[in-house]
Design goal:
The complex is a heterodimer of chains A (291) and B (337).
Chain A lengths: L2 H6 L2 H22 L2 E2 L5 E2 L5 H7 E3 L5 E3 L2 H32 L3 H12 L6 H12 L4 H8 L12 H25 L3 H9 L4 H29 L3 H5 L8 H9 L5 H33 L1
Helix pairs in contact in A: 2-13, 3-13, 4-8, 4-10, 8-10, 9-10, 10-13, 12-13
Chain B lengths: L1 H14 L7 E7 L5 H11 L2 E7 L2 H9 L7 E2 L3 H9 L12 H5 L17 E13 L11 H4 L8 E3 L3 H12 L8 H15 L2 E4 L4 H6 L5 E5 H9 L4 E3 L6 E8 L8 H12 L1 H11 L28 E3 L5 H15 L1
The chains are: A mainly alpha (291), B alpha/beta (337).
């Protein structure tokens, strides 16, 4: 392959990246420093009002004051995304490990089953949870069966929202974790037992370290979409507390403040990039240690 | 904004297939136009109709502001018609010269949102209020206080997630003018909604029929015709007639500036406004009609559809100034922060 082709051959890929990834981000950044239109929309300019608004807003006294409400919304979103990621992680590791122990034919079938929900529209899957968690739904029936009286009401709670988020994104965790544990050499686990390691030690010192690329990759794949999720907080959580996704949506809709919506979206983007950078640095350090 | 419009216009020929003769792209409220009439229009004229739907006026406005929506006909509410006209997003179609205009009831002509009747032909009108499930609640529904300062309904209320609708209703209850620019007045609205919040289980605009019909909640902020339809489907609902009044809306056909199939759009408006077709539409949509109907064939009457014939004042939502809109947003963000 000639050197010229190696450079020019990549032009389509670069053009695609530029047009579909880089350019839209620059447009969002441009809108975030734009001047807000009276009824939505914006004019190009350089104005940091939208960013200032994240920290300082007009209060009920009509004075510009420090108001943590948007920081609270951002922190809440990070918290729920982290929670959903942690739960997915705890559930995905045993599932992926168990799948990796099956025969080759069963493995293929089980992996297919894990991806099956993706063939159904996201909104339909969330509606299914409405039926399960709602009044006289399956969750309530099971609760009563085990002797619970006085049903607490499952729907429209933070728990319902977390269930929805975990359910929506857990396949993205299982697949990379499976890819990592599948390659794990059973002889290493046997060796740890030969060295009088308990089951717990084998898990902690052998399986988790060897599966960690998959665990980290899966965590990112779950955490990032959870940051921007709109459906689960609205339909299952009841929308009583704003999350970043809904907050951004509101700015482009009812609030008619595009620059502020874009500014929040930029904050979301920066948070995601930070997560990716931290991960990349960690991975590099690990490579150095191994070397 | 103009530069974006220009840039997108230049890109348009690349993005869209050339508009064939005989197309009509409609952007309307979800399930708002009788499918029977869409088929009939296509059968009569050969025009292929595509319908996309939205579930809030803001969606429609945002779509038009983003430029080159590709739609020929949209159906926003009165205050958004006003904003769209002021923002130059609509086409002057000489509405007052059209056949459809002759069918419109006089009280809807020359209104503040389109004083010269240049841009819009009304399609449907109604109110926003709240419904209660009579299996769960048998108290009075003659005031917004039942919903906003609940005693019996506490913990069993769901509101819409649209700040404009909810805030307007709270303003009616408190006697605050719509689109108030007085911070102290809007503070009262905030205090009312904040105190109500502990009784509200959800702020959501999806799946309403199921939620109130199945008794997941006992009271739900909702629209007149939707309550009527759900009731006819067997749900034991009653649409409240609060003495403080209901929030009024009127949706109109308008043509976005730059639409490609203007003649088809105007033909469709005329088609929808004939007595025969307007009656079919009325029976399907279950919201009041601002054009002349065939009362022999109209299904809904004051006796069987009290939702559509309110006996309390109806106050139509207005187009808020940016300052007033910011206060609405402040109420809403602080409420859900």
């Amino acid at each position: 392959m000639s050197k010229g082709f190696r450079i020019w051959g990549l032009v389509p890929a670069w053009a695609l990246m530029l047009l579909t990834l880089i350019l839209p981000i620059f447009i969002v950044a441009g809108v975030s420093v734009g001047e807000r239109g009276a009824y939505g929309g914006f004019e190009w300019s350089f104005d940091l009002t939208a960013y200032r608004q994240i920290l300082f807003t007009l209060g009920w006294t009509d004075e510009l004051e420090f108001d943590p409400k948007y920081l609270i919304i951002i922190a809440r979103t990070l918290g729920y995304a982290a929670g959903a990621t942690a739960i997915s992680l705890l559930l995905a590791l045993p599932v992926a490990y168990w799948i990796s122990l099956q025969s080759a034919r069963d493995k293929a079938l089980l992996i297919y089953l894990v991806t099956l929900p993706f063939w159904v529209s996201m909104i339909v899957r969330v509606y299914a949870w409405l039926i399960i968690l709602g009044n006289d739904g399956m969750a309530e029936t099971v609760y009563r069966f085990f002797g619970g009286s006085d049903v607490p009401g499952f729907l429209f709670t933070p728990g319902a929202m977390l269930v929805g988020m975990v359910y929506s994104y857990i396949p993205l965790m299982i697949l990379p974790v499976y890819a990592a544990v599948e390659k794990l050499d059973p002889a290493l686990i046997e060796a740890s037992h030969d060295l009088y390691g308990s089951r717990w030690t084998a898990l902690r010192r052998v399986i988790i370290p060897l599966a960690s690329p998959g665990l980290v990759g899966g965590s990112i794949l779950v955490f990032v979409p959870c940051l921007g999720t709109v459906l689960e907080p609205m339909l299952l959580g009841g929308g009583r507390q704003l999350m970043m996704g809904t907050l951004i949506q509101n700015q482009f809709g009812g609030a008619r403040d595009w620059p502020f919506g874009a500014a929040i979206a930029m904050v979301l983007l920066v948070l995601v990039v930070l997560v990716l950078i931290l991960n990349a640095r960690r991975a590099t350090r690990q490579l150095e240690v191994q070397a | 904004m103009k530069k974006i419009l220009l840039a997108t216009t230049l890109l348009l020929p690349m993005a869209l297939p050339a508009a064939a003769e005989g197309e009509l792209n409609i952007y309307a409220w979800a399930d708002s136009i009788a499918p029977e009439l869409l088929e009939k229009f296509t059968a009569e004229t050969g025009v292929e109709i595509t319908v996309d739907s939205y579930s809030s006026n803001e969606d429609a406005l945002t779509r038009l502001q983003a430029g080159s929506s590709g739609y020929d006909l949209i159906t926003p509410s009165q205050h958004f018609v006003k904003i769209m006209i002021d923002e130059g997003l609509l086409m002057d179609i000489d509405a007052s010269e059209m056949d459809a205009y002759a069918q419109v009831e006089d009280k809807w002509k020359g209104q503040w949102w389109d004083p010269e009747n240049d841009y819009s032909i009304p399609l449907a009108y109604g109110t926003a209020g709240f419904a209660v499930n009579r299996d769960l609640y048998d108290g009075p529904v003659d005031s917004w206080s039942v919903l906003f300062e609940p005693t019996d309904l506490s913990g069993s209320i769901a509101m819409l997630s649209y700040p404009d609708e909810v805030v307007s209703a709270a303003e009616l209850y408190l006697g605050v003018d719509y689109c108030s620019e007085e911070t102290s007045e809007m503070r009262k609205v905030y205090d009312l909604l904040e105190a109500q919040k502990s009784s509200v289980v959800a702020y959501t605009s999806d799946n309403i029929e199921n939620r109130i019909g199945s008794g997941e909640v006992a009271a739900h902020f909702w629209w007149d015709g939707n309550v009527l339809k759900a009731r006819n489907d067997g749900a034991n609902l009653e649409f409240a007639m609060p003495k403080e009044g209901l929030v009024g809306w009127l949706d109109s056909f308008v043509v976005p500036a730059g639409a490609e199939n203007v003649d088809n759009a105007k033909a469709f408006i005329d088609f929808m406004s004939t007595v025969e077709n307007a009656t079919i539409q009325y029976n399907y949509y279950a919201h009041s009609s601002p054009v002349e109907l065939d009362l022999e064939k109209a299904v809904y009457t004051p006796e069987n559809a009290p939702e559509l014939f309110p006996d309390v004042p109806v106050v139509f939502a207005e187009a808020c100034s940016p300052a007033a809109q910011d206060l609405v947003t402040r109420v809403w963000t602080d409420l859900l922060q």
